[in-house]
Protein: RecT family protein
Amino acid sequence: MTAPMLTRGVLHTPSTVTEMMRLAEVLAQSSLVPRDYRGKVADILGALLWGQEVGLGPLQALQGIAVVNGRPAIWGDAALTLVRAHPACVSIREGVEGGGDDQHGWCEVVRRGHPPVRRTFSVADAKRARLWGKTGPNGPTPWVTYPARMLMLRARGFAIRDAFADALRGVITVEEAADIPPEPRDVPNLAAESAPTADASAAANPLPAASPATDASAVPGNDNDVAIGWRAMAWPIRSRDGTCRDMGDPDLWEAEFADRIRTIEQHPKLAAPAKADTIHAVLAANREVLDWLRDERDQGAAVESVEGLFVEALGADAVTG
Structure:
């Protein structure tokens, strides 16, 4: 058996994968690690490895690194600490200025031998990214409760990554990663020369009848087996052809809808009426799922947030009518 990891009261940084695995197994049972890591030995091991890559000790890594959408990310304060400790860092200044849509967070980073790098992120930027005033299934997000700080953190992430990519090894901040939609999957094929209207699409690809629910956790229209509890069920989303896929959590679920709508809105070959018809078809395909989540799963806040995306794209009358 290898020597204990504690020497004179100081945590020894594990130097082998075996030592890291032993440490991960112990930490996974602790209530002192962040909740998202409890019981997850593999995630803890990944965080320790990434921490070693960027220069964070084991406990610093667990506090400073998170897994977001399946990728490692680093909290803004931990990233700032790493950059300040870099021998080439001369100074970092940041703040919030302005008002209204022109209010913006800013960060200026000076690296020895290089011109200053200054980045900003404004309320207008946040609105374009559909972040401003964003709510989640558990209520307001930090974009509602701490909007000024979120503006500054976003500017900080851009500035320190541009000036000190070597210090961060290409890892982005958690604050930025949490707001990035997942890679589009099952997005309607809009690259065809012409796109069918909602009626034509329905005729060509009739939606299959919903599978009968054998218990309260069955997903409407989902071809999967009955889920074991609603957490296992995850968050279903349907394509216009009737196929159903589960997202990992409500934020990914909402982001997937936003990405589908944005893909349609930005398609260069679709006229405005065809875009509206296509977006409406996506809403119609998911109407049963949205109603089920709201009525059977008491997820009204999450459903309201997604319906807001369609209201923004189609107008309230088109969504509620």
The two ends are 69 Å apart (CA to CA).
